[in-house]
Queue: 4 jobs
Job 1
Amino acid sequence: MKILSLQNVHKKYQDAKDFAVNDVSFDVEEGEILALVGESGSGKTTVLRLIAGLEHPDSGTISLSGHIIVSGKQSVPANERQVGMVFQDYALFPHLTILENVKFGLKKSAGNPTKIAEDTLNLVGLSEDYQKYPHQLSGGQQQRVALARAIAPNPKILLMDEPFSNLDAMLKDQVREEIRQIIKKTGITAIFVTHDTKDALSTADRVAILHKGYLQQIDIPKHLYESPVNPYVANFFGKRNEIIATPLEEGWHTTFGFIADTEAKKYKNKVKLMFRPEHGEVVKRDGQQLTGRIVKISYFGSHQMVKLADDEGKRVTIRTNPGRSFDGVERSFFYLWKYDIEEAF
Amino acid sequence: MLILLLIATPLFTIFFKLFDKPGDSWQHIVNNLLFGYFQNTILILIGVAIMTFLLGVSTAWLVSNYEFPGRKYFEWLLILPLGFPGYIMAYTYVGLLDYTGPIQVFLRNTFDIQVRGSLLDIMNLPGAIFILSITLFPYVFLISRSSFVQQSKTLQEASFLLGKNRMQTFFKVALPMARPAIVAGIALASMEVLNDYGTVKYFGVNTFTTGIFRAWFSLGDASTAIYLAAILMVFVFVILYMESAQRGNRQYASSKDVQKPLIRTIPTVGKKILYTSICTIIFLVSFFVPFLQLLHWVSMTYSKVINADFWLLVYRSFVLAAVSGAVVVALSVILLYTLRLSPFRWVKNITKVATLGYAIPGAVIAVGIMIPLLSLDKWIYTTFISAKAAGLFFSGTLLALIFAYIVRFMAVGYNPVEAGFQKIGMHVNEASRLLGARSTKTLWKIDLPLIKTSLISGILLVFVDVLKELPLTLILRPFNYQTLATKAFDMATNEMIAESANAALIIILTGIIPIIFLNKLIKKREP
């Protein structure tokens, strides 16, 4: 069931030349986790703030669980929308204790606020320290409190602004998984904004990518990564190599060598072969392969990146396992097991 | 060290003299007056605290959260009343509301309304509260405004999203977070209330300050004055203690630096009119109307009053204020520079003593300085000149007066200098010394030029405060010596209100310069 729907939403800030959000439309299903990704200035945070009611669009409609909350200039104020939000800086009230922070949004009519607040704190994994003040907690704990405060009033939708950006790398992987589990456990619908593709791909059910205010693509992570609708989306999710290829009867002729491919005869003009580093493999000489001069090897622990150059100096990067040794090797062979063909000329 | 000891003199005096027997009139005061002193002082303190809170916080909230016509101007217009010393405001208002004053004349001539005498009579306790509140609320306004502005915008947004509207957000988030700042502002205003002599004296309201004067001048009883001063100091310490105790365990600044610039809300037209009117009325009452009245008086009397004597008075007051300002800043530099180069921690704590004077009412400082000086004079005379003659050597000289100003206004000059030193940091100084310059040379060549603006603002702030100062000057000035402040006060109490406006206007105009300057300084720190 659709819980949130944006239709043709436009937003331009005062004094700005371009739209921050330009004709954006998408739906969010109930119980789903959606990630909004993009570079800084892509409009992703603005979309989040429009949904929250902290900004107002110039045109377009937004509806939340069947009710229209924004229609053109008309909009329901933020405090009546029942939207929960975890801010990037957490925005915990420094003068209130943890418990008071979580109780802040609870109405007396909704039962026993203290009980609900304590239950929510337990849910996010904070079972003591209720009487402490926010500055006495670590960054990770503060984030849990912020999450508890946002979900305690049982909002229709949970919004999170860069939820992982203030955590150090060690903590991040763990928190990502925990937050996903908490959200799934409560069955709440969530939207989070991030500039980190790893956060988006690993945590979200679906990912929406924005660029210069336009929605580029919204899809499940696997599709976005493997079938990007345009070069911007493709490059956003990781490095892509491109090799210029001339179609022949049995395959492609490239500056790195010959690739057998029956598809090639369907093309008349030169094309670009696009592939990610992990779609290639560095191999020993064995049948039909491509070859290049080793320019640079970067070691990352979990893998190595090998940069290879053709005779004209064009370069491609291939990912390989960390155990492989390239000592004393000047040239290496590789093959591609997957690539996209793009008619560029 | 010597500087610090000298500055602490008045406190020591009062402390040790407490062990002496009280004077003859003490019993009389205890029996007849003390209760009244207590009652009036406490009522005025509470009244001013409530009034400055309402005036200061409401205007600060409007100015920092809403966009309405004139908002930018009100940011500094509402600080201007600080330039009005309480006693000048007091007799200006008496003039305004007088039978022959513009308000009653207007009512009589236009509506034929005869106002009963008591209705517009402000020469009483509520009147004193009113006058002190409209001159002191800018302290609360200034300090809570900068607190509101520095509050993270996201906290307010978080509150909206948790279902609270603007009003609820103000009372549950913004106000409690600004509480330490607001209380600090009110504490500052309370110190000024305890210091005030002119207003309460003029209105005939007896407080501890007027009591000290009475004991000193009318009764000639120094030890009774000391006793009263000691009680007044108890008030000061109670207020200081309450101010620091209320902070408690909480932290009020947001722990993260990620802050969005505050976006002011644009209210509906009706509310815009309301907000602008509120600020306008407060400004008119607290500054503009009394200021016009002063101008009117000046235009009536300047030909009579302004002559060579008057200019001599201006000149002497300015020199006195400038010398005090320069000495305060010079001492601050010496203290702070020693502190910077000193490896010892305790030095840091000791220098705090130097800035205590600002909390001590002027009358207390005056008494605390006068008594040791009198005995010093006595000792000098009996030892070196003649055992029989008694005369004045230090007491009743300009030297004593300047010394008292330094004690009282040390903090005023010290703080900007300290801020200046902090801003340039330690590294330039260290670099200079590593390049072979001695520390004195480094001070002259590196530190002082870098903190030039801080030095100037320090001198300027002390200058203005000295110019306005009344109670201390009244007690310690040499016989028949007048400053602008004492002249204005004397004339006003002698039914020459219109004539006194000339001196008052100069004090106010000089006072406005650093206020605008100060405002710019605060604005710079805002995001």
Job 2
Amino acid sequence: MSEYKKKDIDEISGVETTGHEWDGLKELNNPLPRWWVWVFLVTCIWSLWYFVVYPAWPVAGGATKGTSGYTQFKELAASQAEIIARQQVYIEKFEQADFDKVLNDPALYSFATAGGAAAFKDNCATCHGSGAEGSQGYPNLNDDDWLWGGKVEDIYTTLQHGIRVHNDYDTRTSQMPAFGKEGLLKTEQINDVVDYVVALKGGHDAASLQGYDIFQQNCASCHGADGKGLREFGAPNLTDAIWLYGGKRADIYQSVFYSRAGMMPAWKNRLDENTIRQLAIYVHQLGGGE
Amino acid sequence: MSEDSTNNNPDDIQLFAKQERIYPKRVSGIYRNLKWIAMIICLAIYYLVPFIRWDRGPNAPDQAVLIDLERGRAYWFWIEIWPQEIYILTGILILAAILLFFVTSLFGRVWCGYLCFQTVWTDLFIWVERIVQGDRNKRKKMREGPWTKEKVIKLGITHAIWLVIAWCTAGSFVLYFNDAPTLVRSFFNFDVSPVVLGFIGSLTFMTYLMAGFAREQVCTYMCPYARFQSAMFDQDTLIIGYDEKRGEPRGKHKKGADWTGLGDCIDCTACVQVCPMGIDIREGLQMECIACGLCIDACDDIMDKVGLPRGLIRYDTERRLEEKNHDLKISPFRILRPRSFYYMAIIAIVGGIMLYSLLTRSELDMNILHDRNPLFVQLSNGDIRNGYDLKILNKTHSDHIYALQVHGLDGAVIEMVGAGDLDELVLGVAADSVGQFKVFVHAPVEPQEPIEIEFVLQETQTGISDRYKSMFISERPH
């Protein structure tokens, strides 16, 4: 400090001046520590190194590549590869385990449901909704009512071959006649049978109704004499609370007049075996699995 | 540029200040002894705590203080913290900050002078320097002299010891995050992960740099605490003060000579020579002063020798020193001031909240999350079903079986979905872990406003229970 003493010192602050003066205003000099300057220079050098090694400068058609060849895409690919490698352990076990084993093994079970949940969002949510809640014409997969069966194997078959897929011989298929449109029943007969079905779903004793005979002759072959449906034909239970196409009288009339025939794609050749099995387990655990 | 001769020449101005090398002289006295004691206690705590064992049973680590990042647990003797209890850390930080304010408002910068790790490690490194190279004058002479063989050897030994200390410091830090004996053993087997080595390497470097080289620069230029302490200071805060009235005019004094016209300060610069910050306390209160009190020890020693009363430099307050300078009546110390009570109140409140949360911390926690999609499901028999995600936090160190019940819903039936056969009355959760379950509740309910229900979870043997309020939804929200 001694070399500063001969210099001009500001009286009030006791700090030396830089020698710059403007109309009597003097600039004070509070020197920066020298190491601070060194740190600053080191960071400058660091930035030069960074410019060279990493992608940095925008140029026409992108940016300078950098000698390290680093990109975030590569980083993403690397972390994805790491995840796949981690999954591989489970995939191998999963491939070898049958449904029964998976349903009883907590680790495989959560692996399957996690994979199934992701695949469901990608492939199934379009029609069934992201919560598998469905909507009119698209079954709610959370409930306990199944057209084609709610065992995990049944769900698996439905997923593989779909419903009413025209070029798949193993597809789930059946056809309800359009009783009104095709002239199989007269309008008053349709009204009678709809009344009967409405009574059936209300849990009333409907055998005395006029529609009873019409139902037994035309509908019972698929829906059963008691109206409880038959899964071989995908014929819904008409006595429960679940109505895929609506349970109002007008909805039921529409169904009888025009018939209903929803379809679902076969996923066998679109998704791999593991994904389909994961989906089957995922759907099975949504709440309605049998 | 003006030709005025009193102006400095801008070309001669140093805009960047070189770090002045400081060679603190050895001193002994009450404050030096306090500093030794504080240093030994601080270092002992830091280096030894990871090795303290604390029995927590067979399924938990037996290290008394451990932050297990991998498994997300922090252990502090009998306290065990899960990630969701991280607010306790917030509490500790708030408490530490307020305690610091409190102590500073009472006694000035005692933290800086005695307890701060920068001070403690710098002190330790200076001690090493002195042991190897000798006291102030020897060090200074050797440092400023030519490169001799002796200089190379002595500097080499100093830096080697510094590096060893720095390495131990870094190693100890890592021990707080790992099982200490295991990690120490794996060191001797050269079987340490690159992450651990990376941490040790960078912390060794930083310790070496900060305590060996940066030293007082940290306090003066880097530390924010040193700067904002001015906000905690007032006229009644204890500072290290030089009694100007008594000391000035300073001047050399020969033994037995007349004191007329001279103050008590004999300008021996002992206070400057011992200062680890390299300042002259006689210039008054300065931002650089860390209030370590070594200048008091040095000056008292000199005063004893010249036969004058001690306390030319002493702990005092700005108000009292000022009053003395102006020959006013000197007011008494006012250590406890309104701000002391504000700080105490805050400490009591924060400490009380933390104590309460630690005392009421249960070993069982239940979380229930109602499904959002779908909100509810109609079943074929007309019942309504709601889905919930259930998490059971078993914070004990043994496996437990829990029974789940739902209250407030007539005809409610609980159904469990998951791997294997699950029974809501027999939910097993392993020691020190979170059990996750999918719960369905269905009941014959007509569509209506959400029904408030309550889940009750009870440990089947001890009877410890937890409750969680939730909803049963049966119609779409309007």
Job 3
Amino acid sequence: MRNLIKIAATTVALFASAPAFAGWEPTKPVEIVVAAGAGGASDQMARMMQAAIQKNNLLKQPVVVSLKGGASGAEALMYMKSSDGDPNKVLIAYSLIYMLPLSAKLPFDWRELSPVAVIALDQFVLWDNVNGPKTVKEFIEAAKASSSPFKMGGTGSKREDHVLTVFMEKKTGAKFSYLPYKSGGEAATQLVGGHTESNVNNPSENLEVWRAGQVRPLCVFDKERISYTTKVTETQSWNDIPTCKEQGLDVQYLMLRGMFLPGKVTPEQQEFYVDLFSKLVQTAEYKDYMEKQALKPIFLTGKDMLQFLEEDGSLNKQLMTEAGFVAK
Amino acid sequence: MEALGLLLHGFAVLLTWKTLALMMVGLVLGVFVGVLPGLGGPNGVAILLPLTFSMDPTSAIVMLSCIYWGALFGGAITSILFNIPGEAWSVATTFDGYPMAQQGKAAEALTAAFTSSFIGSLVAVLLITFLAPWISSFALKFGPPEFFAVYLLTFCSFVGLGREDKHKTVIAMSLGLLLAGVGMDTVSGQLRMTFGSTDLLRGINFLVAVIGLFGISEILLTMEERLALRGHAASISLRTVLAVWKDLPKYWLTLLRSSVIGCWLGITPGGAIAASFMGYNLAKRFSKDPDSFGKGRIEGVFAPETAAHASGTAALLPMLALGIPGSGTAAILLGGLMVWGLNPGPLLFVEHKDFVWGLIASMYLGNVVGLVLVLSTVPIFASILRVPFAAVAPMIVVSCAIGAYAIQNAMFDVWLMLGFGVVGYVFKKIKIPLAPFTLALVLGSRAEDAFRQSMIISGGNMKVFWANGLVGTITTLAILLLFWPLIDRLVASFGKASPPAAKAEA
């Protein structure tokens, strides 16, 4: 009995710096799995995490970023699916976890993975070229009046950008031809070059061309405006962009950014990562990143996260079905 | 001359002992990763990226870009010595570089490759220095039809200018296009030809195929013919280097042509790989003795290397100014920039002058230092050829396997590489050219996307490829090149004889 107490005491001493429940910690380098190509939003987030963890000593093991962007991110999903029980891999997930199984019949279900935390929500903004119409109303009118349909650039096919385009068509009656590009960056440059009339890029994807005065944000697809009020361009902040609903276009969509472990990990392992990410979201690097990319703050774990995922999943399924993107 | 002042400022930022030391470290590491087939620049930069998080952005980018230059130089080494291209754009270097090594002229070939790399990069850096703003706006003119026209031009130049049988070139290209279709289709969002396999989801990686097609098949051929590397102990000395340099002015036209092609395709996002092939093909076309190409002609090394490096360097410009990476390595550098809080885009040149001009100055300095470094190590690399085949061959196979594995951390790719090795062997036996096959594999899906995007824009009307001066010129040029042999013959017969005779000949 005395020995037991001794062991317990030593153990407590050993983990004095860590939370009391941290019975497990990684013994191998931790791999952040990115379901997108180099330089995309998920990759940038992974690099930020890598830097934040390293600078704040949140982990004893090194962090590596592995890019699994093949097949529009399907590669990363199948990689996680085949890594059952491996607690050293953590996926940065976004809405592809709902959409790819529907549009490409990928044999994947997010319920097979172990959810850790939802750490941000990404916005979508309707942008047009700075030489184009100045308000949503004028934009829609111009689109309707145009002899050939307005071209809408976006990332991938039958994904978020495409779904938003279909819902804009349904709400306004205007027609768009949707042009699928490989990345948001490409969609941004094509808009600047005048090869498309508009896109629905995430704030981070169009930030630089907006600051350079080459594109104009028309409205944000959320119920409320983006909260950041610091000036981003010479005259405007993210908060100055009206919501689409204010402008008479009642379409909303937000995209989760969440962390998942592979299936069949132990509750201790899951707990360790919940703790890690709850510390991560407190770091200056993370907060700075959120503001720069105009992400909407949120932090959900455990039951809250599961409930969120279920609701978000069925909403996405409904949108995909209505848009006619579900493969038969 | 505002640019000149800024450049001098860049040098001032750069010339500290710490930065210079980092530059050397980067170059040495780069040459090493470049020598390992498949590991190459992108992986080298990715592995070393976390090391730089604690550095200031300028030091970090200088070190990483020097790894990039080092890898560019290093890629030529394995192409010439073992017929294994380390990077996609080294493929064309093998056409004449490897025969030269077999004839005992490895040192000449390596010197030629390094020197022309240097010249190509230098031209591109000069271009970046003085024409950066203009180039950025030029790159913006490229929409889907323009991109497709450029890819079409590359494909057509292969068919029209290649010396191989036309039908075999077309067969090889079609097979490449077919394999490029494996995986996710961007335009429809559907999976194609994956047969339910998780490994095929990713599609067929170009580098895996290249390592197998060129490296493994070469080992198989050597095993069949004789168990020895065919390079003899080359005489390696300063004299060799100087001899190559003395001949350099003779090839000024080739060097100039390749530099122009390289710069032009480099600033076209995704064009870097096409550049080396086009540089090679055009040099062959305009040569007085085109039949000697592919048999160990030094011009056949100058042409693709100059073009590849001009485009590799120029490819950094769209990355900095537009945020669109022109190559795999540039894409990883892009990720690094963002960690350091630098957002590539039109304002980078205005808001972070220190960084941008420090980087541009490092391109000048890195290339000079890199050239000296690799030239002084030529004897070491060339002496590998004197090691017995029985010792070198297993090392090559292992290094190929590591390279194939490291690209995507997948064991499946190692099997795929071996499979391509057998395909390469068979192709060489039945004389189907490998180059059009690899070219189609690497550009196929981009060409397809661009074509289908163009069709969406125009509603299925082919006139979109003549919609404006830019795209119209490129498309017309492509078609001219495709039928070049016929045109060539017609022009020649009109030139030397009276019309009736021409008719009889045609």
Job 4
Amino acid sequence: MFSQCADPSTLDGLNWLGCYLTTGKHISFYWSFLTVLVLLAVTAPIALAFGFGGAMAARSQVAPLRWLGKGYAAMVRGVPDIVFFLFFVIALDQALEWSLHQVRCPDWTEPIRQGLEFKVCPQAKIPPGDAPQWIHQLYGFALAVTTFALVFGAFAANVLQGAMQAVPRAQLETAESYGMTAAQVFRRILVPQMWVYALPGLSNLWMILIKATPLLFLLGVQDIVYWAKELGGAKTSTFAYPHPDWRLFYFLGLLVFYLCMTKVSEIALGRLTLRLTRGQATMAGEAQRRVHA
Amino acid sequence: MTCAEAFSAYALRSLGIGEKLLPRSDFTLCQQVTLIGSGLIWNIYFGVLALFFGFFLANAVAMARASRSAWLRKPAEWFIFVFRGSPLFIQFFLFYEAFVLLPKAGIDIPLGVTTLTVETSWLTKAWAGALIVLFLNTAAYSAEIFYGALQSVPRGDLEAADAYGLTGWNRFRRILWPTTLRLAWPAYTNEAIFLFQSTTLVFFSGFPATQQRGDALYYANYFADKTFNPFVPYPIVAVYFILLTLLLTWGFNAVNRHLNRHLPANTRSRIRLRPQIIR
């Protein structure tokens, strides 16, 4: 990167470290932190939408829809989340390819599951076999995001379902007595009031989501854990920058990164709680009103 | 291979007893159920031991956290923050790398006349290393729960203790601790359930499975990789874990009833499963 880094064997001390930390692979390592942040930024709203849908379905008048919503929320209660991660990544991929196969190759006669293989016709491959590398990476990342969103949507559905039940019944009855329809009550009364009840659960969920991001490594994405393992491993003198096994330090770095993320989130969520409790008919809201009055 | 054969070959495979080679072709449902169930032994081993030892450390840390002396309080706060604020996955990697760096030949401790050589290689094995991480991790999470419960012991209880002249250790053992435990128990049940669930991370995070002796998810992943069909092995793991969760809830409920036995029925604390404290 820098001109003085052209011949690493002549360097020593801080110069060596400076050049070492700016190699191409290290730059990829720093970018992978962005991958984690992007995953968080993309997953959180989608998961929230899934959760909202699940919670709405669980309150539905239509029985099958209600069962679907309740089942979705219950699915994460007894089973480790990592099982879902490992399951969904393959299952989603196969489901997509299978559907595409049905559409594009209707007269394909061979069975798709042949013994130990899953074979669809070449036109149904996702991404297509001749696609460049970055498409494959993007597809992997999209699968990971969907998986995260599905699992965390189930968590969010749990939280939101509880929050919708926590809104005082009297509030809804008042709205009904004003002649609002069910949809109006839901939109104007229930949803604006439920967030304050949902916030403790959702904050918790955000923390869990942050702490689940290293699982990206298991889904085959080149994330920070991948690079920490890769870069930290002992390098013999055939490499430009030989060093002993430094993985411990790389993982210490990751630990600090996650601790900072947690701390910053805690502070931000604390502020958000303060903001959202303003004017609410809860104990904390009442306490705020007293201070201002 | 019949079902009975599969059972006798693989029921204790995760401990290294039985057939050496894992199935490679013609996978039957029996093989998958048996082998994954055999892996569950490790999940139970990690969960039970970490929970048992963690319980004592958690109580100590919670007491330290509530202490007035900063020398006790600050380390306890940091311990809880570090283990609750970072992913368990990273903790596994970190500890594994740290254990690997320990000298292979062991550490010599001079004892004046002789030197004692402490073996360290067993720390890099999952049965010990991962257990230590899980033990520290659950201790931190439980300590936070116990600390919260300790803070919400009713003042009336303490005043009653004072009125009876109970002080120091007696007051703690007879009044403070039982009430703390009773208040903390529903949350602690959740912690126990999620500890058992997070034992599935062990063999995916640095700790190697020697001779393919792994836990339930390790074998499920093996089958999914080999058959390229996730729709059989993962649901099997899921069913096993649901059964395990039901068993745990039942056991913890029994303890909860015991802790609440002196209270009228309407004031007893009930256990509700909340997916809130996974790592």
